[in-house]
Design brief:
- The strands form three sheets. Strands 1, 2, 3, 4, 5 and 6 form a six-stranded mixed beta sheet that branches. A five-stranded mixed beta sheet has the order 8-10-11-13-12, with helices on one face.
- Strand 12 and strand 13 form a beta hairpin.
- It is an alpha+beta fold.
- The chain has three domains: 122 residues, PAS domain (Beta-Lactamase, 2-Layer Sandwich); 40 residues; 163 residues, Histidine kinase-like ATPase, C-terminal domain (Heat Shock Protein 90), CATH 3.30.565.
- Helix 6 runs antiparallel to helix 7, helix 6 crosses helix 8 and helix 8 packs antiparallel against helix 9.
C-alpha cells in the first residue's frame, strides 16, 4: 500500500488526523470503544477490500442494520446505484493515500430510504505506515437539508413575489397613464359641445362607459374580457325587449386594450341610437350580432350593428367627436375596418377586426 504523509492535505474540508495502529492504544481500547459506541455520530470502519469491520450503536439506529447484519459485508450495501461509480473510484483513491476529508453525499438505510449525510473519512495506518483501512464518521443532515430547501424555496418565492409586484406596479403605472390620456382626450373633444351642461352630461356618460369596461377587466385580473360582456355592459342603460344580442357560438376573448376601445365604440353607437336612432322611438329596435369569418387564410371578427323601425337616419356633413372616436378606435387602435350605412330602413354599421390581434 502507498504510504500516507501525515501532513498532507486534500481538496475537501479540513485535514482529519490519520488513525495509527499503535501498541500504546491497546490498554485504552475498551475506553475508546465505549466512547465510539456512545457517540451521537454513526461510526464504522472498513478494511482495504471495502469490508465493514466495525459498526457503532448510532450506525445501527441511523441505518437500521445491526452489527451482526452488517459486519463482514461490503460498504457498498449503503451506496445508491446512482452513486456507485463515484463511490468505487473514491475507495480506490482513498486506499492509495488520496485525502477526501469531509463531504456531503447520500447513503441508503436498510429499508432502502435515502439519507442525506455528511461523511468524514480518515485513513487507518498500520505499524509499518501502510493504510490498512478507513474510519468513517457519518452525520445525518436530512433535517438541515430540508431546512435549506425550505429556505431556498422561500427565497425563490419571495423573489418571484417581488418580481410579480414590480411587474404589477409597472403595469398599473402604464394603465393609469393610458387611462388618464383617454380621459384627457374625452374631455378635450367633449368640450366642443355647445354648452357646459351638454359637456357635463356627455363627458359623464363617457366616463361611465370607460368605468364599465374597467369593471369587466378587474373581475379577470386585467387579463381579458368577453366581447358579449362588453356589449351588454354598454347597452345596459338601454336594455329592453327592443334590443336583441345574438353572439356567435364561440366566445370571443379580448385583450384589455381592445376591451377599452370597443367599450367606447359601443357606447358611442348606443348613445347615438338613443338620441337620434332606433332607440329614440318606441317602434325602433336594435340588433347586435357577431361571428367569425375567414378571408385569404386569415380569421376575422365581423360585428353587425343594425337599427330598424326608427326615423330615417340623417348623414350629417359635420362629423362629431363620436364618429371620429369610433373610426379612430376601429382603424388605428384595432387595425380593423368599419362601414356605416345610412339606409332609410335604419342606420347600420359593420365592423371587421382581425382575430389574431384581439385574442389574449
Amino acid at each position: 500500500m502507498k504510504k500516507r504523509r501525515p501532513d498532507a492535505t486534500g481538496p475537501i474540508g479540513e485535514m482529519a488526523a490519520p488513525i495509527k495502529h499503535d501498541q500504546s492504544y491497546d490498554k485504552e481500547r475498551p475506553l475508546l470503544a465505549a466512547i465510539v459506541n456512545a457517540s451521537r455520530d454513526a461510526i464504522w470502519s472498513w478494511d482495504a477490500s471495502g469490508v465493514i469491520t466495525s459498526w457503532n450503536a448510532e450506525a445501527e439506529r441511523l441505518f437500521g442494520f445491526t452489527a451482526d447484519e452488517i459486519l463482514g459485508t461490503s460498504l457498498f450495501v449503503m451506496v445508491p446505484d446512482d452513486r456507485m461509480e463515484l463511490a468505487s473510484k473514491a475507495v480506490v483513491r482513498l486506499m492509495n493515500g488520496e485525502y477526501f476529508g469531509q463531504y456531503e453525499t447520500v447513503r441508503l438505510r436498510k429499508d432502502g430510504a435515502r439519507l442525506d449525510v455528511e461523511l468524514t473519512v480518515s485513513p487507518i495506518y498500520g505499524t509499518g505506515g501502510e493504510i490498512t483501512g478507513v474510519a468513517t464518521v457519518c452525520r445525518d443532515i436530512t433535517q438541515r437539508k430540508d431546512v435549506e430547501a425550505q429556505l431556498r424555496h422561500a427565497i425563490e418565492a419571495a423573489q418571484r413575489a417581488q418580481d410579480r409586484q414590480s411587474l404589477l406596479i409597472n403595469e398599473l403605472n402604464h394603465r393609469v397613464k393610458n387611462t388618464l390620456a383617454t380621459v384627457q382626450s374625452l374631455a378635450v373633444m367633449t368640450s366642443k359641445t355647445k354648452s357646459p351642461l351638454e359637456f357635463a352630461n356627455a363627458f359623464t356618460r363617457r366616463l361611465e362607459a370607460l368605468s364599465a369596461t374597467h369593471d369587466l377587466l378587474t373581475s379577470s385580473g386585467w387579463e381579458y374580457a368577453l366581447l358579449g360582456d362588453v356589449v351588454a355592459a354598454e347597452l345596459k342603460p338601454y336594455m329592453s325587449a327592443r334590443i336583441t344580442i345574438a353572439p356567435s357560438p364561440d366566445p370571443i376573448l379580448l385583450k384589455p386594450k381592445q376591451v377599452l376601445s370597443l367599450g367606447l365604440v359601443f357606447h358611442e353607437l348606443a348613445t347615438n341610437a338613443a338620441k337620434h336612432g332606433a332607440l329614440a322611438h318606441e317602434a325602433g329596435a336594435l340588433d347586435v350580432s357577431w361571428q367569425q369569418t375567414e378571408r385569404e387564410g386569415r380569421k376575422y371578427l365581423a360585428i353587425h350593428w343594425h337599427e330598424r323601425g326608427g326615423a330615417p337616419p340623417k348623414k350629417t356633413r359635420k362629423r362629431g367627436f363620436g364618429s371620429r372616436l369610433i373610426e379612430s378606435s376601429i382603424v388605428h387602435e384595432l387595425r380593423g375596418q368599419i362601414a356605416f350605412d345610412f339606409s332609410p330602413a335604419g342606420f347600420s354599421a359593420k365592423i371587421e377586426l382581425p382575430l389574431d390581434t384581439l385574442s389574449p
